[in-house]
Each structure stands twice: as structure tokens, then as C-alpha cells.
Design brief:
The chain has a domain of 140 residues: 3-Layer(aba) Sandwich (Rossmann fold), CATH 3.40.50. The protein is built from ten helices and ten strands. A six-stranded mixed beta sheet has the order 6-7-8-3-9-10, with helices on both faces. The protein has a four-stranded antiparallel beta sheet with strand order 2-1-4-5, with helices on one face. Helix 3 crosses helix 4. It starts with a strand and ends with a helix. Bound molecules: adenosine-5'-triphosphate and magnesium ion. The site of adenosine-5'-triphosphate has 13 residues, from helix 1.
């Protein structure tokens, strides 16, 4: 996987939402994108596979595996989305239609991506559910029969089913309590180790940055003010804004994060 964002600007009429952003992600890394609300994190992540609202205009280049995704046509984008670049959203409930079973969602997703045999799709779906600690019984359940954390795990299983190269996780744990959040992130890390995917992780939570990220970038008002290795930035921030953010962040250290709570009820093998 290669992803190189070069001089990306996104505007809404006269207003610049992203201003000359450049960023490279390395294969297999966990890259965190941090910054205050409205700084452009979601817009940046949506630009990567041309998911921006039609009123916004993007300029620059996004080289993903040798193709500029900003200039790809609809057909190629459809192939890439889900198979190569996949998104996990905060609103995981929105990824499921209430009156269709979890299994039906897995069937549909694979069918759209060209997996023709219904039985193969079912086997893959159950394997995927098992891999996130949800067994076969969940295949027949409806979304409202799952807890928030379970549903988010199901959405991760669905997103990772086709082994995408790049997984974009935009505030995926915001709606969950802290134990559920860490279970989700541990699961994501386990999946990353199994598949070697790259993770672009958008968060407000410095504890998650400390615990999971390899590298990070800090955004402010549509620009990247600082990026690099996690340890360098945490221990020796250069930009005034990064220093301010770190000062305001909780003081938990990298490995202090609710390990006890996690160890007690981690159901994922
Ligand atoms: N469809 C749109 N049209 C015009 N402006 C938009 C649109 N979507 C987002 N914006 C603006 O772009 C800026 C960046 O928004 P974005 O959603 O990327 O922020 P964010 O960093 O993800 O914030 P948060 O942490 O709250 O999710 C904001 O000022 C927002 O109001
Ligand atoms: Mg956002």
C-alpha cells in the first residue's frame, strides 16, 4: 500500500477547508490524525476515495497505489471503495438497515463486490463474525438485537471482510464507553496485525493516540501543523498548538489505559 497526499486543497466556494495538505502514510502503520473540531480531519479522510459532498472542490493529488484517486472515474472508484479503501464510521448504526439481519448485510456487501456463491458468502460472513468475537448466532440477528459495542464489532468485521489495504476509522469509539472503546481498538489492532492493513485513525482522544498510534499529524484550521513519530511529538512537540493540545490532554501514560478493566472482560481471542 502506498498513500501520498500531495498539496491537497478543498474549498467550498471562497472558503478553504483544507489548505495545501501533504502527508504520506506507510504500509501497515497506525496513523492518527488529531485536531480540534472543524479542523478538516473528516474532509481529509473523505477526499481519499472521492467521498466529498459535490459542493466541495478538491485540488492537488492523492496517490494511492500508483493511481490519483482525485481523477478516477466512478467505475474504478466503486472497485476501490471497500476492497482497497474502507471506512469505519462513528455512526455504525447507520451502516445497518434495521429490518435486515446482520447476515443479509454481509451477503449484500460481498455480492456487490463480486462474490457470487451464496454459500461461500455465508461461510465468509460467519468466519468474519467469529473473528470479532461474535459467533454464528449473530448471523441471524437483527441490528437492534446487538449492543452498541457488538454492532460496532460487526461493522468492523464487515469493513475488513475484503481485506482492504487502507482502513479509515473516523472517531469510531466516540459513542462507546471507555471499556468498549478499548475493546474495539484492540480488535482493530489485532486485525491490523493479521492483515497488514494501514490504519488512518481520526480521534480527539490522546489516550488512544498514546496507546495505538505509530505516527500522527496534528491539524488546525485546514492545515497540518506538525507530523511525525508519536514518541517524538509526545516528548518533544515543536509547534505551539501541539503543546497547547498536549497540555489540555489527560495525563495518562501509554500503558496505563484501563488495562485492568480490559483484562477482566476481553472476549476477543
Ligand atoms: N458539505 C460541506 N460544505 C461546506 N463546508 C463543510 C462541509 N462539510 C464540512 N464543512 C466544513 O469544513 C470544515 C472541516 O470539517 P470536518 O468535518 O472535516 O471537521 P473535523 O475536523 O472532522 O471535525 P470533528 O472533529 O468535529 O469531526 C468545517 O468548518 C466544516 O464546517
Ligand atoms: Mg470529523
Amino acid at each position: 500500500m502506498t498513500l501520498s497526499i500531495e498539496h491537497l486543497s478543498v474549498s467550498s466556494g471562497e472558503k478553504k477547508i483544507l489548505d495545501n495538505v501533504s502527508l504520506q502514510l506507510h504500509k501497515g502503520e497506525w496513523f492518527a490524525l488529531v485536531g480540534q473540531s472543524g479542523s478538516g480531519k473528516s474532509i481529509l479522510s473523505q477526499s481519499i476515495s472521492q467521498m466529498l459532498p459535490p459542493t466541495l472542490v478538491a485540488e492537488g493529488k492523492i496517490n494511492f497505489n500508483g493511481e490519483n484517486t482525485l481523477s478516477l472515474g466512478r467505475k474504478r472508484l466503486k472497485e476501490i471503495r471497500g476492497r482497497k479503501i474502507a471506512y469505519i464510521f462513528q455512526d455504525y448504526q447507520g451502516s445497518f438497515t434495521p429490518f435486515r439481519t446482520i447476515g443479509a448485510h454481509f451477503q449484500e456487501y460481498q455480492k456487490v463486490h463480486g462474490i457470487k456463491d451464496k454459500r461461500v458468502r455465508k461461510v465468509k460472513a460467519i468466519e468474519a463474525l467469529e473473528s470479532v468475537g461474535l459467533g454464528e448466532p449473530f448471523y441471524k440477528r437483527y441490528p437492534f438485537q446487538l449492543s452498541g459495542g457488538q454492532l460496532q464489532r460487526a461493522s468492523i468485521a464487515l469493513t475488513l471482510l475484503l481485506s482492504p489495504d487502507l482502513v479509515i476509522a473516523d472517531e469510531v469509539t466516540t459513542a462507546l464507553d471507555s471499556v468498549s472503546s478499548h475493546r474495539i481498538l484492540q480488535l482493530l489492532m489485532k486485525k491490523q496485525q493479521e492483515t497488514g492493513c494501514t490504519i488512518l485513525f481520526i480521534t480527539h482522544d490522546w489516550r488512544h493516540v498514546r496507546k495505538y498510534a505509530d505516527r500522527l499529524a496534528i491539524m488546525k484550521e485546514g492545515e497540518i501543523v506538525e507530523f511525525g513519530n508519536k514518541h517524538h511529538i509526545l516528548h518533544n512537540p515543536q509547534h505551539e498548538y501541539t503543546k497547547q493540545l498536549l497540555k489540555a490532554a489527560p495525563v495518562l501514560k501509554e500503558d496505563e489505559v484501563e488495562e485492568g478493566a480490559l483484562a477482566n472482560d476481553l472476549v476477543i481471542s
